[in-house]
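As promised in the previous annual report, we have extended the structural survey to additional targets. Below is the entry for Protein nirF.
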Amino acid sequence: MNLRHPFRALAAAAALALLAGCAHTPALRGTGDLGIVIERASGAVQVVDNTHRTSLGRVTGLGDLSHAHATYSRDARYAYVFGRDGGLTKVDLLTQTIAKRIIQAGNSIGGSISQDGSLVVAQNYTPGGIRAFDADTLEPVSEVPAEYAPGKFSKVVGLADLPGQKFAYALFDAGEIWVTDFSDPKHPTTQRYKAGKNPYDGLVTPDGRYYLAGLFGEDGIALLDLWHPEKGVRKILEGYGRGEQKLPVYKMPHLRGWALAGHYAFLPAVGHHEVLVIDTRTWTEAAHIPVKSQPVFVMARPDARQVWVNFAFPDNGWVQVIDVPTLQVIKTLQPGKAVLHMEFTPRGEEVWVSARDSNRVTVYDTATFAPRTVLPANAPSGIFFTDRASRIGF
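The corresponding structure token record, generated without further manual editing, is:
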């Protein structure tokens, strides 16, 4: 640099700084059609674009991503990825980099974000309980140990965000549903409700009113009306499966708010080759639909016209589609080996299906059931699109 011309030197330095800044500035674009695909075997996520059905890049260094789960920041720019090793990683979708990563527990099973987007809350097996973190910095804010009796801690499952800075979740070992209010983030308060034997997962209805926990240790589902929590938990479908011999359960089914279609809730039956249909106006069984095997995910298309189902081993290479008006299976597909997850585009014209052992994600047209494209991926599992950022219970 020529020091005899100080103004030229300053201009050159400014230009270099500007170029350096540009090299780290993401292209100007929105995030509404972005998402991530979990690559569990390599501890990475692919950042994907569901408008152009393409991968934008890969972010590595996320640890053990078996049974990984993700939720999104309020502005849908950042994915918070919860790893099984207790890792919580904040991924910037635009720069495709890790913005922040911490190890918050020994064994984590997922998480959620508060109504105002200020708190990220993780649910943990070890130590049992939930922990809240600042969504910007991932600094710890507070925690609620799942100590249901002196010295006894429970695994936490089925965490769902609720209106009013609250979270509902189930305690597998305690047989309880807890609702924790983080309105005062450093001093959360918790209400406890008896649920039944071994709740294995939970969901909240899209309006945030009802929380349901599936029971593994007995027939039935625990239902809590969050508008009237003083009434306690109500058991529904208590008689389901009575007198029938259950099959061995090869994989615990999952529940989430995407199982709601119109007035119906579609839920996987534990130990049965059936999908349960509940009329949410009366919370009674409306039907049970025979399907190919034990269902794992039962997911309604956003317009509620179809429900897509995948299955546990050894039939985990299949997917079936249920027509909601007729409650009949109308299509059976083979997307690949070990189908682990499905995710609809925000308006439901396509669904992305991960096949772990085939190392691919197939994008299907939900009207014709024809594959539109196939994306290579390294042992893909969960697929999470950013439209989850604006939905209750995700």
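The first helix runs from residue 6 to 23. The longest strand covers residues 119-126. These points will be discussed at the next consortium meeting with the crystallography subgroup.
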